[in-house]
Amino acid sequence: MTSASRQAVLSKHRTLASLGLLVLAALAWLPLPETLAASTLDATLSSAFQSFALAKALNAVISVLQSVTGDALLVQIQFGEVLDPANDMVERFSWVMFASTVSLAFQKLLLGIAGSLPVKSVLSLGCLGMLTVLHLGKPRWRGIAGRLLIVAAFLRFAVIAVALASAAVETLYISDTREALYAELEQDKAVLERIADQTAPGDAVAGADDAQSEDQGWWQGLKERLGSGVKDRVQAAMDRFDAMTQNLVELTMLFLVQTMLLPLGFLYLSYRGARYLAAGLGAPGRRLSSSTD
After folding, report:
1. Tens of pLDDT along 184-193?
2. Which of 118, 162, 183, 273 is surrounded by the most beta carbons within 10 Å?
3. d(Cα 89, Cα 109) in Å, to the nearest integer?
4. Which DSSP letter does residue 28 get?
5. HSE-up of 175 (CA within 13 Å, CB side)?
6. pLDDT for the residue 142
7. Handedness of CA 220, 225, 228, 230 (dihedral sign)
8. Which helix (H) or strand (E) holds 123?
9. Is this model's pTM higher than 0.70 or not?
10. How far apart are the first and last CA of the chain?
11. pLDDT tens, residue by residue, 2-25
12. Closest-CA residue to 210 (of 22, 74, 78, 28)
């Protein structure tokens, strides 16, 4: 390749790089990507709050069942075997939802920092500095200016890219499954509320029946009741708790993936990409000259 053609190629590359730097400097101040990322984080945070409220409602229903059956010794033992594991599961789910909301709140904090005036200014100055180095033709400073530019671009756009990528995965694979689990858990809560409503008046009637049949013996009357309605309600609660446990486990997995694993994974990929670009600027002069020979 002759010297003239080499200069033409270098001039073309310099022009394209200059246009890219100007576009990047303009994107640093564009509010649309940041607004989209904030809206996706708000939507996910709303879902996490909804799940947290649902967990508290389930915990309240279980507490009602425990308080309703607390007066009858045998009934309390029967329900206790069911309610203790269910309480533990709901408490663990509540902690996961709390951790998810903290993770999302932290991502919103990082998004606010990425959209702050200092970060935007640093990225714009980095673009102008790299543009100046390119046109001055100083390869020795090109690597330093390029690395600083990549760091500034990472600070500005990494969290936005992570939020948008996580939102895309949520829309494609997670959203429908999560809504179906919400519906099933709402049904579980409704069934448990009906069991609690049936248990409370039943225990009161049982107390009246025991008082009226005192000459037959209160112990015999209690055993008869335990073998009929209360036992059926205990079995119904056990069956519903099994279904609820599976739904809680699946919903926990979805939120762990959506609010923790996906953001960490995409952030790691962004970091590796930034490092790869920074390493590629290590010897710009040699690489460019070797590619044009």
Report:
1. 888 888 887 8
2. 162
3. 30
4. T
5. 11
6. 79
7. negative
8. helix 117-136
9. yes
10. 6
11. 666 666 666 777 788 788 888 888
12. 74
